[in-house]
Amino acid sequence: MPSSKRDYYEVLGVERGASADEIKKAYRKLALQFHPDRNPGDAAAEESFKEATQAYEILRDGEKRSRYDQFGHSGVDPSMGGGHGDFGGFDISDALRAFMRDFGGFGNFEFGGTSRGGSSGPRRGQDLQIQLKLTLEEVATGVERTLRVKVLSPCGTCGGSGAKPGTSSDTCQTCGGQGQVRQVQRSILGQFVNIAECPDCHGDGTILRDRCSDCRGEGRKETTESIKVRIPAGVTSGNYIPLRGKGNVGMRGGPRGDIIVLIEEIEHAHLERHGDDVLSEIDISFDQAVLGGSVQVATLDGKVKMNIPAGTPSGKIFRLRGKGIPHLRGSGSGDQLVRVHIHVPKKLNKEARRILEEVRGNDSFRPPGKS
Ligand SMILES: [Zn+2]
Ligand SMILES: [Zn+2]
User: Fold this and answer.
1) Which CATH superfamily is domain 1-104 in?
2) Which ligand ends up closest to the CA of 155?
């Protein structure tokens, strides 16, 4: 595998805004060109086939595509906590399987009976997506939450097997326990062997003699579980935390899927987020603007004193360094930007009026260039 991965859109030769249909068409064209069956013994073609398929697997999936758009390869690479582990070792059999799923059988190949989990035996349960709303203060500090999640867990009565207690299951006669059957088919490129899920045991390789009455043979039941999740400081809407192996358990003893905790940020009443900076607005008095002074500014971690230098114009933006959101990657934090507005009073008491009448017409108060 090349050390630096090419951009997936570039691999498929499509625009970033390409529709699902365009992506599928572009992939199909490349896959047919580089398919190992058309290029026997050609390692470079196999590599291109794999690369195109991997790109297709990300871009065909709306969720993965948006993660890729946001975070690039690191957003979908499992080593960065982005994927579901499905591309941990994306090999040629994965690529062929993916191609077959969407475009049907093609070529004289057979692939993994039992070499990779999932192709036979109990299937993995589904992933669950949970939305977690966080305030900007929580985003700034990071939080730990306990989520109450409805999830499919192994049935206590049958221990997850789906078999009625005291009974056992038989090896499926149709597939001999493999969970898959081979079908010889003909295609434009000749005869090939297609591997399909066994129609009798649906991939389990076994047939129940008697079903567990508690779970009706599924081997799983809905439970409510408390799951702890730690959210690091600096996240933003659209970020997600994968909790591996915490999702639904598969049917009849299949491994658990993941829980994907999707972050949603609640809008703040006074602070506007711009990347890792936050912007706030404050009113200062006329005399503070002219003569200078100090004001209290609310930040994400309490109030701080901010100096207003003499001669501050309305609309000026001050920067409070490090008072923004911590950077999710790397160290340090963004800043808080404070835009000041000069408060112009509508009512004046007698003394204020007298003072201002006195300075009315004074040259110091005239905008430059005006008389
Ligand atoms: Zn059961
Ligand atoms: Zn079977």
Assistant:
1) DnaJ domain (1.10.287.110)
2) 1
Longest dimension (CA), the chain: 105
Listed by start position, the domains of the chain span 1-104, 272-365
Give the phi and the psi of residue 44 in degrees, each rounded to 5. Answer: -65, -40
CATH 3.30.450.20 corresponds to the domain 272-365: no
pLDDT band at 187 (very low <50, low <70, confident <90, very high): low
211 CA from centroid of ligand 1 (Å) = 8
Q: Structure tokens of 371?
A: 């008389």
Q: What is the pLDDT of residues 93-130, one digit of tens each?
A: 788 878 877 776 443 333 322 223 344 557 788 889 89
CA 187 to chain CA mean position, Å: 39
- Read off the tokens for 17: 């805004």
- pTM as predicted: 0.59
Q: How far is the CA of 99 from the centre of ligand 1 (A)?
A: 36
Mark 315-340 as b/e (b = at least 16 C-beta within 10 Å): ebebebeebbbbeeeeeebbbbbbeb
> Counting ligands in written order, which one lies closest to the CA of residue 199?
2
